[in-house]
Write a structure and sequence with these properties.
The chain has helices at 10-17, 70-73, 149-153; strands at 4-7, 24-27, 32-36, 40-44, 60-62, 76-82, 84-91, 94-101, 107-116, 119-128, 139-141, 143-144, 168-171. The chain is mainly β. Strand 9 (107-116) and strand 10 form a beta hairpin. The two termini are 22 Å apart.
Length: 190
């Protein structure tokens, strides 16, 4: 599961997408997030099928059920721009956050979106974690390389991108556990 992520490098976003954004070190569900469809756009990180009578507010969707579950059959595809994410390792009664990144570069999560009650909302697609990452968490977001972006957006399933092999991680300060803590100190090595 991916429940928090970062988009810290606002200069890289400006250079690549010609957008001015504020750096964010602790993006949480329900936040407005940068996505790519035909063009860059902001969406709420909270997915709801168009037919739902009440909000479901899904933040992740399993790749294994993407074509099976009714909740995802009406979904359109998007990319969610990021430069890192957090996962928590549970040991005894403690939860230690880890920060995952790709040499601090921008990358894209595979995503889906729909419009619900007049608002676009998205979810991150996840898969079984690679062996090296599974010691922290059994799931991970699907990373889509820039060269695979058009294929993903046009409907091709890309669940095993080579980009997943370039992920590094390290423990970080437990203050990241609260989404209110949104500054550079949260991603500093623990």
């Amino acid at each position: 599961m991916c429940g928090r992520y970062t988009l810290r490098n606002s200069q890289a976003v400006k250079n690549k997408y010609l957008l001015n954004i504020d750096a964010s070190y602790n993006i949480a569900p329900s936040h407005s997030v940068l996505t790519l469809t035909a063009e860059p756009t902001l969406m709420r990180w909270s997915y709801n099928p168009t037919w739902a009578k009440t909000s479901m507010n899904l933040i992740n969707a399993r790749s294994e059920t993407l074509s099976i579950k009714p909740s995802f059959k009406v979904a359109k595809r998007c990319l969610i721009v990021a430069d890192g994410w957090y996962e928590w390792l549970r040991t005894d009664n403690k939860k230690q956050p880890y920060f995952f990144h790709m040499n601090d570069s921008l990358f894209n999560f595979a995503g889906i979106y729909t419009e619900y009650n007049g608002e676009k909302g998205c979810a991150i697609i996840t898969k079984e974690a690679t062996q090296s990452l599974s010691r922290v968490h059994h799931r991970m977001p699907i990373i889509i390389a820039d060269g695979e972006a058009d294929s993903w957006l046009s409907g091709k399933d890309i669940f095993d991108s080579k980009s997943s092999e370039d992920i590094e991680f390290y423990p970080v300060n437990t203050m990241v556990n609260s989404p209110r803590n949104n500054n550079v100190d949260r991603v500093a090595r623990n």
